[in-house]
Amino acid sequence: MNLIRLILLTLMLTALSACGGTQSCHKPQLYQSAQQGERIEVPEDLDELQVRKELKIPEPSPRPPRAEDDTCMDAPPTFGSRAD
């Protein structure tokens, strides 16, 4: 009976430890390779698209590069130590 408990405890601890750790977000993500497409060409027998309703995507604001050991932006902050 104790052997079964020991095996179950070991399996549970192994499963829980697999969920921990920090992620690296420095690998290029799929969305980062996106490119702007061409405008839609409307056939002659249809009405033209309304230019004022087009979605304009602004250029991103420049930011300093993140350090290699930084966690992902969506990772929760660490508590307990303050950087003053």
How does this structure look, described?
The protein has one helix and no strands. By secondary structure, it is mostly helical. It is elongated and about 80 Å long. The termini are far apart. The model has no long low-confidence stretch (mean pLDDT 76).
Short summary:
20% of the residues lie in helices and 0% in strands. The protein has 84 residues and is mostly helical.
> Class by helix and strand content?
mainly alpha
Q: Provide a count of the helices.
A: 1
Helix fraction, binned, reads 10-25%
- Helices and strands, in order, run as H
Distance between the termini: 53 Å
Fraction of residues in β-strands: under 5%
What's the arrangement of secondary structure elements?
Elements: H1 2-18
Features:
single chain; 84 residues; 1 helix; elongated
